[in-house]
Structure formats: structure tokens, C-alpha cells
Amino acid sequence: WVSRDGEKMTSWGGAPSRSNKCACGVTGTCDNAANSCNCESNDNVWREDSGFLTDKETLP
User: Which candidate, 23, 5, 7, places its Cα nearest to that of 15?
Assistant: First the structure.
């Protein structure tokens, strides 16, 4: 996603801004432990990365 300042953000909900992770990457619960997000599995299995975006300085 893109911040209000036009910066490409490399994290998703539930993870700290600019961490290059999703919530499962922070908690170590991604389906593939080598990944930082479930969407990186790229194995044609429906997976989810979810959480809240809480850094108010970057929200659009």
C-alpha cells in the first residue's frame, strides 16, 4: 500500500511500519515459517494476511 506521503509501505496490518512483514511474520505463525507474510507462499492455496494498520502518520 502507499502512505499519505506517497511512500511504498512494505508491511501490512498487525506489523510495525517498514518491517517488511505481516502480522504472521511478527508472531511467527505464517503457514511457511520462511515467509514474512502468507501471501508469499504462492502455492495456489487461499491464505490470509490481516491486521490493523495503526501508524497514524502513514495512513492515507
Answer: 23
Check if the beta carbon of residue 13 is closer than 8 Å to that of residue 22: yes
Q: Is 13 helix (H, G, I), strand (E, B) or coil?
A: coil
Per-residue pLDDT of the chain (60 residues; tens, 9 = 90+): 999 999 999 999 999 999 999 999 999 999 999 999 999 999 999 999 999 999 999 998
Task: Give the angle 35-37-40 at the CA atoms, nearest 5°.
Answer: 70
Residue with cell 491486521: 51
In 3-state terms the chain splits into helix, strand, coil percentages (rounded to 5) of 15, 5, 80
